[in-house]
Write a structure and sequence with these properties.
Blueprint: H1 3-53, H2 60-109, H3 118-128, H4 132-161, H5 165-172, H6 175-210, H7 213-221, H8 225-277, H9 283-324, E1 351-359, E2 366-375, E3 380-384, H10 391-398, E4 406-411, E5 414-415, H11 421-426, E6 428-432, H12 442-447, H13 457-467, H14 470-473, H15 496-509, E7 514-518, H16 526-539, E8 544-549, H17 552-555, E9 560-565, E10 568-573, H18 575-581, H19 584-601
Parallel strand pairs: 3-8, 3-9, 6-7, 7-8
Antiparallel strand pairs: 1-2, 1-4, 4-5, 9-10
Helix pairs in contact: 1-2, 1-4, 1-9, 2-4, 3-6, 3-9, 4-5, 4-9, 5-8, 5-9, 6-8, 6-9, 8-9, 13-15, 18-19
């Protein structure tokens, strides 16, 4: 057990709930002492009642006082247990908020390349599986419970030692085997869950497909429902069979533990009978000793179970802190402390890319190979190529989303690896093929482009007019306060073209110096795409623009065209220059031109 992770957890608890933790600890100590007090009270009540029955001189008020004291102790124990539960809930809520925020912060601050790693997704899924606060409170509560149980067992041991030392041995002997067995199965359950994570994640993915609006059209059209259900069923049953197999083994082991405990109780009973037959015990002592033996065995069982639970959940705690400290050395070229340069207030020389090469994580094949080119300020660049040629990968490198590349990317001779991340992102904007359709208001959807000006409605309207979105937004019931999408009540769904104009407005609202268009109009008709591209260029005359497409007709309006093939630039120049080369660009352009002619004649 790596106690350092538990120590880290308790440090967080102390940081976020010091008073709650201290109060809960005091309550656990009191509850730990209470069994001994209860035993002595019970013993005295039985002894005095026995003497009263036998006609010996015993004051009724003394018996009544003991009974009232017993009642008061029971009520106090009940109240303290309820208060402790309330404190635990308060601490759990605090932890859930604080740690969930840390987990989400980690997700939005790690290098973008991490999202190319399946093991990162698996790790993320394990951490977010269930309420974080609840899972973190398990070892906290369990540790405090162990403190309570240790105090209780110490009380029982002291009490039993006054009767006979053999009772102490009999009560404690079951501790080691119970602890070993429960710790073993606790560890087995955690590692089973870890090994099942990829299959569980796939099963959850299939469940989301079966229950989301976006996928429902294709599932019905292609009749995928039964296939996906069978695939989900196989994964679900596979994981469940492994879980049930482990559960059966665990319960068989617990049955043996219970039998062993029962034999120990029989041995203790025989020893008690021997003591009472010799006249060493009064009736009250006999009864209280029997309760002490049962209490000791139960407490030992609880200590072993709780320690095993701590061990099992400590593995989750370890997994959580490893996620919060997740680091993939190969994906880090510069850390944030080394990024000290500012982005040029106005780009003067332009962008220069030299011998750029890129590998995806854990891949031996280069996605980009020795790419070099330069771009003047305000120049319009089209990047074309067939699917898989490396267009989107190149853009992600230019945007600083991937920083584990070989070669250099400079802006006005400043390496972008040395530019402060926030300043780099502030001067870049873009629209992607998989652009987001935020299920928020129109104002928020556009305002997200410049979050610092989210409340500047008139500026948002002006930008919306440039993108062409204002014409349909004005027809919505609440205009810019209308919620978009069908995910929440009162939302309005837009057409594909309308969503694209909203995304275009979001990109324009940032007022950045460099814009990336990564096939945002791929789903539109080529002629509509060309018109939208022309409209976009007219609103961004002085802005450096990279336009990524596999359609050659859209590239004609660009000042320079880069042709990618298998991760390399095989040609570059204007449309006329590339057509005169009679090379790769000419081949692709003619192939698409012939397709358009065939389409028109049909």
């Amino acid at each position: 057990m790596k106690l350092v992770y538990l120590k880290n957890l308790f440090t967080l608890v102390w940081q976020y709930g010091k008073a709650l933790f201290l109060l809960s600890t005091i309550i656990k100590i009191i509850l730990g002492i209470s069994p001994l007090a209860t035993l002595f009270i019970v013993q005295e009540v039985i002894n005095q009642v026995t003497e009263l029955i036998q006609g010996e001189s015993v004051e009724y008020m003394s018996v009544l006082f003991l009974l009232l004291l017993q009642f008061a102790v029971s009520v106090l124990i009940s109240i303290l247990n309820h208060v402790d539960s309330i404190l635990a809930i308060h601490l759990e809520v605090r932890l859930d908020y604080k740690i969930s925020k840390k987990v989400s912060t980690k997700s939005i601050t790690v290098p973008f390349s991490y999202f190319e790693l399946s093991q990162f997704y698996d790790h993320q899924n394990r951490i977010k599986n269930g309420n974080i606060g609840t899972r973190l409170m398990i070892p906290i509560k369990a540790t405090l419970d162990v403190l309570k149980y240790i105090i209780s067992i110490s009380s029982y041991v002291i009490f039993l030692a006054t009767i006979h030392w053999g009772l102490v041995v009999i009560s404690l002997i079951a501790f080691i085997p119970i602890l070993i067995i429960k710790a073993k199965f606790g560890s087995a359950k955690f590692y089973l869950m870890r090994n099942q994570t990829p299959a569980a994640r796939e099963a959850n993915y299939i469940t989301s497909l079966l229950n989301t609006r976006q996928a429902s059209k294709e599932i019905r059209l292609f009749r995928l429902g039964e296939f996906l259900l069978q695939k989900w069923s196989f994964l679900f049953k596979k994981n469940n069979s492994q879980t049930l197999r482990l559960a059966r083994r665990e319960y068989y082991a617990f049955i043996l533990i219970d039998l062993f405990s029962a034999l120990l109780y029989v041995a203790a009973s025989l020893l008690l009978i021997s003591q009472i037959s010799r006249g060493f015990l009064a009736v009250g002592q006999f009864v209280s000793t029997g309760q002490a033996i049962q209490g000791a065995q139960s407490t030992i069982n609880m200590i072993a179970s709780t320690l095993a639970r701590i061990y099992e959940n400590q593995l989750y705690v370890e997994d959580l802190f490893k996620y919060l400290n997740y680091y993939e050395p190969t994906l880090h070229k510069n850390n944030e402390q080394e990024k000290t340069m500012s982005f040029p207030s106005k780009v003067q020389k332009g962008i220069n890319v030299g011998n750029l090469s890129f590998y995806y994580p854990h891949s031996s094949k280069k996605a980009l190979h020795n790419i070099s080119f330069s771009v003047k300020p305000g120049e319009k660049i089209a990047i074309v190529g067939e699917n898989g040629s490396g267009k989107s990968t190149l853009v992600k490198c230019l945007m600083g989303l991937y920083n584990n590349y070989e070669g250099t990317i400079t802006i006005d001779d400043i390496d972008i690896q040395k530019i402060k991340t926030n300043e780099l992102y502030d001067q870049m904007t873009g629209i992607f093929q998989d652009y987001m359709k935020y299920q928020f208001t129109v104002q928020e959807n556009i305002g997200f482009g410049n979050i610092s000006k989210l409340d500047q409605l008139q500026q948002i309207i002006n930008t919306s007019e440039k993108s062409g979105a204002d014409s349909f937004v004005r027809n919505l019931p609440k205009q810019y306060s209308s919620r978009l999408g069908r995910l929440f009540q009162g939302g309005y769904e837009l057409s594909g073209g309308q969503w694209q104009k909203i995304a275009l407005a979001r990109a324009l609202y940032k007022n950045a110096q460099i814009i990336f268009l990564d096939e945002p109009t791929a789903s539109l008709d080529p002629l509509v795409e060309i018109e939208l591209f022309r409209q976009f260029l007219s609103t961004t005359k002085d802005v450096t623009t990279f336009y990524i497409s596999h359609r050659m007709a859209s590239a004609k309006v660009a000042e320079k065209i880069l042709v990618l093939k298998n991760g390399e630039i095989v040609e570059s120049g204007s449309h006329t220059e590339l057509m005169n080369l009679q090379g790769e660009y000419h081949r692709m352009y003619q192939a698409q031109a012939n397709w358009y002619l065939e389409k028109d004649s049909s």
